[in-house]
Amino acid sequence: MSQSFDRSIKIAPSILAADFAAFGAECAAAEAQGADWIHVDVMDGHFVPNISFGPATCAAIRPHIKGVMDVHLMISPVDPYIDAFVQAGADILTAHLEAGPHIHRTLQAIRAGGAKAGLALNPGTPAEAAAGLLDDVDLICVMTVNPGFGGQKFIHSQIDKIRKLRTMIGDRPVHIEIDGGIDPVTAPLVVAAGADVLVAGSAVFRGGSVADPAPYGRNIAAIRKMANDALSDT
Ligand code: DX5
Ligand code: ZN
């Protein structure tokens, strides 16, 4: 990962809301407009009811991203594909706790492959389910929608879970990433609860395009401002 650990606010646009025919240019445009990380959503039509793309697409996108490529695997099983996603250039590889019976093994395999290990929790999974895994992860991704689609409504009951995880993590260098329904209204809520990485798809890519990327910059700046204001209030 091209970044050392810190808890500053990071905005990670999800390319699920970008132009699928122009991923490379979309990633470059989002970075040029202020994105900190690029969030890449992989869906298999089995773990979630939607199919996006796989490791070949991630490898094709990689040269167009200067910073962190944050790959969110919504697939089951995970283990047979870890090597392919590491080879594709993922800096962070996030697997779902619900994706199989041996999540600890999966996280170890991701680290052994050379990527940072992320653990994603579905809305129905309690914070306590991550208790035995805190020394084996670099990031916990709290899903604030049910995974599978962009543009869904933020689930407010997840805020208490974020607060619990922040306490459980303590001084460990573990990011708390929030994924789903993040916009300038919800961003401050999750930051006040302890989040530092904000994934946003529709709220970043709406209104702009590769030909007219300035709205991406305004959208990112609006989320960042509300998030940082919440941080200075805590
Ligand atoms: C949902 C994906 C999210 C999604 C976020 O399954 O993991 O990354 O694209 O999209 P928005 O920000 O539109 O909710
Ligand atoms: Zn995601």
UniProtKB/TrEMBL annotation:
Function comment: Catalyzes the reversible epimerization of D-ribulose 5-phosphate to D-xylulose 5-phosphate.
InterPro entries, per the entry: Aldolase_TIM, Ribul_P_3_epim, Ribul_P_3_epim-like, RibuloseP-bd_barrel
Cofactor, free-text remark: Binds 1 divalent metal cation per subunit.
Biological or metabolic pathway of the protein: Carbohydrate degradation
Residues binding substrate, per UniProt: 14, 72, 148-151, 179-181, 201-202
Gene3D superfamilies tied to this protein: Aldolase class I
Protein EC: 5.1.3.1
This protein's GO CC annotations: cytoplasm
Residues that, per the record, bind a divalent metal cation: 39, 41, 72, 179
Broadest EC class assigned to this enzyme: isomerase
Coiled-coil region(s): none
Name of this protein: Ribulose-phosphate 3-epimerase
GO biological process: pentose catabolic process; pentose-phosphate shunt
Alphabetized UniProt keyword annotations: Carbohydrate metabolism, Cobalt, Isomerase, Manganese, Metal-binding, Zinc
Cofactor: Zn(2+); Co(2+); Mn(2+); a divalent metal cation
Stated family: Belongs to the ribulose-phosphate 3-epimerase family.
Catalytic activity: D-ribulose 5-phosphate = D-xylulose 5-phosphate
UniProt organism field: Jannaschia pohangensis
Ribonucleoprotein keyword on record: no
